[in-house]
Amino acid sequence: MAKELNFKKNRPESEWLNDEDMGNFYQHITTEYGVEKGNISLFENAFILGGLIKKFNNGTSIGRSANGLIKRIRGNNFIFIPACCEESSHWTLFVYDKENKTFHHYNSYKDVNNLKYFCPFLKSGVLEVDKNSIFVEHQTPQQDNGIDCGLYVIAITELLVRRYQINPAVMSWEISGEEGEEVKKNVPLFRKMLVEGKDYFADLSTETTQKKIAKLTEIRQIIASAQNVLSKNKSTLEELQKAITELKVLASSPVDGVERVIWEENKVSNQKMLANLEEKLSRVSKGADNSQTSEPKSNDNVNSKSADSTDNKNGKYVPTPAADQQPSQETKNDLNDAISQAQDGTDDDKVNAIRKAGKIHGEEGYQEQNEQIKAIKKDLAQNNPEKHREGIIGEIEENLKKNNLSVEELDSEVQEKYKKIKNGEIKESGQIEEEEKKINQNIAQTGSKKRFKKLSDKVKKASRYSKEKIQKLKAKILRFINCSSAYDREYKSKAQSLLVELESNAQTSPSPQSIPWNYIISLAGGLVVVGLMAALVIRKKSKSKNRRKKQFLRGRET
After folding, report:
1. pLDDT at 315
2. In this structure, how many other beta carbons lie within 10 angstroms of the beta carbon of residue 331?
3. Which of 237, 365, 445, 502 keeps 20 to 30 A from 336, CA to CA?
4. How deeply is 258 buried, as exposed, middle or buried, from its count of CB atoms within 10 A (0-12, 13-18, 19+)?
């Protein structure tokens, strides 16, 4: 049975969250998650902040009114401050990160911005906050009405506190798209708590955050491992190559990906670490790395010198752009539309949805769509087996197109299975689907192998490529490494080795600066002079020969 909460009873669902409600929710979250003093503090006295702002703006003496908030700031690392003032009547959330002197701001309704009301006060020094503190506006899920702003503050607070409590070592302040949907899903539950006065925390959606925490932990371990490799007196070539490749993958990952979020958190230090690793790799490659010479340079004075990762103007590391290799949003939307139409549509609509599923075979992030396609297949197999077979054939053909393959490139056994399905030799729907899985798996594996071999062949020829062509090839390898295909990822370690090999081959590629133009121009000028002199000699000899010939002919006539 749900616990009772200290809320006013029998309130309408359209009622706004007031200061007292905010305080009650904050006290409950503190208890629910066992928030530890010294790390996080949820400032539940929201009404105090509004009063402080009013006094500050009116030029009235604040006196001891701010002491409670000042005490929280002094005694904790992170302070959650829900903010609502008379001018806006809109709740937003500020989180102060004391160590990094940063206010993180979350606003669920972009048409109203509380920053202009609160920023001058928060930076005034009244709260003993560093006057050089910065404000970071975060992407925030947006409310669909004019009354839920306070509940969004609660839902975002709960998300961030939960994230911190799961693993404080990997705290991130960004809210991903998936987490944004999680917040929107939880807002009605907080509304239900408010209206009924009962605890429904056990029903909150938490799966996305826990998955993200696991991913964040993995990524931070990669960075920590790279730092260890850099700190070692004697690092092997393999260790350095692996660390450099993994860091470059993080730096070039999709902008909205978890990897990039972690990279950007300490971007400058990560760039310098990568530059140090590349320099150390160069020394190790030349056999010069030993206990006396392997001390890395100060992070404050090192710039990357790699051809692909350096901005020639300022020497800063610039990650090679790498587009996400997963199916486009257009493909995803197209598939979702086809599925929606198939669920209440004709058998041909169902065939169309099954066919389009071939475009996402082997890709991650499509669990929901795959389950829907399974249901459509089951329905069609029961009611129209011939259309079911037609849909399966279409799915296989789309998968072939996606992987740029012909049937003839598949294993001979798989080719035979496909022909039997296409010719109607296999009748039973269950067997058709069983064979279809094997065929699509072989298509995906063959496609991945083909793509990797194509990249590998190009890397072997890289010493003959221009710098621009090497950059494009590097971008392709990074896209391959970062792709969402489970089959391509089987080649991830090999692709990372390709990246290192490309670096090596790129160093032997001729550059315009290495060509001795002065020598070539001088040589060309010399050849021209020699050619002219030879032509004059030949012409002179020819005239002499003609003169002798004429003299000989005159002698014969006489």
Report:
1. 39
2. 15
3. 445
4. buried
